[in-house]
Fold this sequence. Notes:
The protein has 17 helices and 7 strands. The chain has helices spanning 6-15, 21-48, 106-115, 120-131, 137-145, 148-155, 211-223, 240-247, 257-265, 270-284, 289-303, 308-316, 318-321, 329-335, 339-352, 361-378, 386-396, and strands at residues 64-74, 77-86, 162-177, 180-192, 198-206, 228-234, 252-255. One of its GO terms (biological process) is DNA transposition.
Amino acid sequence: MSTLTKEQIKQLVRGNNFQSVSDINEYLKDIFKDIIQELLEAELEAKLGYAKDDVENKKTDNSRNGYTPKKIKSEFGEIDIQVPRDRKGEFQPKIIPKYQRNVSGIEEKVIALYARGMSTRDISQQIEELYGFSLSAEMVSKITDRIAPEIKEWQQRPLEPIYSFVFMDAIHYKVKDDGRIINRAAYVVLGVTIDGYKDILGIWIGDNESSKFWLGVLNDLKNRGVQDVLIFCVDGLTGLKEAINAAYPKSEVQRCIIHQLRNSFKYVPYKDLKAFSNDFKEVYHAINEEIALEKLYELKEKWGKEYPFAIRSWENNWDVISPFFKFPEEIRKIIYTTNIIEGLHRQFRKVTKTKTIFPTDSSLEKILYLASMNVVKKWTQRYKNWDRVLSQLVIQYPGRLEEYI
């Protein structure tokens, strides 16, 4: 497409008495309308095979049959055009299809604004301010509903046969249900491929977090092709370890060390918290499990009488804490915390902070899906030192990775 030269632009400005940006917009609107009209005329001419004033070369029994007025929405606002008709009703315009009344890409803009957390009412107001035509909050909602098939397809897409790490956590929201406001959990699963790249495997909306629902999520992953996971990184939900063992009996379960520390610290008053947390570093910085246990027992000797519950949770959960100690620093950095999924949750909270209550589960699902797509676009880098991580995993889990590398 050719562009105007600087001299042509100067002539354009001199030939029009532009007083404001809106004057320029109106001028462009008129040009846009004329171009659309000409394109429609050209399409019909191509269909009939003869020009409007060239009846002598007519070689068809079809002919022009007037116009149908049509109002379309564009980036320049609402425009009235005249769609040419043919006698036989065979003409189907391509530039503006028969039932299309919006040529501005407005739907994509609406969905993009919705993905950033704007309410349907705010989006409606923004569209009116930008484009000069009204788009009701209900229409905005209908537009965003059109991504429902896309969400379904994404949620059912086939997954990789094996993941090196899978992080699982839930984030909670309030949703209306038959006039009541209930608590709902968005169950989020994030996987790391054997190539070291992150991906959101799915988001499930359900009742408040439970091991039974998590088992359903895990079975869904299996049905979508996930045959094996080396390490699941999770928080301390009761029964989650059993759910993982039922679905993926060969997988290792690693409790998030940060969650475990927070759980212990809540039993310790502020006056002792700094000294207690410094002593605990000796445990989770230990070079192997044997030394970690020694340090835990030393900690118990020092603090156990005053704060027994702070120590007991480590003893009771040692089977899901201890896998951490057999790995080198590169892998420990990955499984030390579920911060990777908490970071995703922070992005979710950014776009949902203006919505204290969601009208339906599907409205919550829509905004979390759109936010997820924006996050995933930025995940272009794989984990640092991944070659070394993969080499360690191959040794630690013999026979499980070789066929996929």
